[in-house]
Amino acid sequence: MSKSIALLCIQATDEGRTIAEAIKVDNEGIQITNKPAMIQIEREGEIVIKADTVSDALGRDWEPEELQLILISTGGQIDEDDEQFVVYWNN
């Protein structure tokens, strides 16, 4: 049985595009689709956004709660702490 697709949609801002590229680093096999005003990110099972990787990409400290500023929608359950933001399906 295949896993469900975790989904994350963020605003297509300069910061959103940089965060999407950072997400690609930590999530092998991820699909990123650029749409006119948003970036759609999909991966089977889970999407992990690591604070360290995003901080390196942005060139400044970044905390996972900042994702809420550009977040449009998610598909899946969310687990968040100081180190990472995870969208996943528990099935």
TrEMBL record:
Belongs to the TmoD/XamoD family. GO terms for molecular function: monooxygenase activity. It comes from the Bacteria. Keywords: Monooxygenase, Oxidoreductase. InterPro entries: MOase_MmoB_DmpM, mOase_MmoB_DmpM_sf. The keyword Oxidoreductase applies. This is Monooxygenase. It comes from Halarcobacter anaerophilus. SUPFAM superfamilies: Monooxygenase (hydroxylase) regulatory protein.
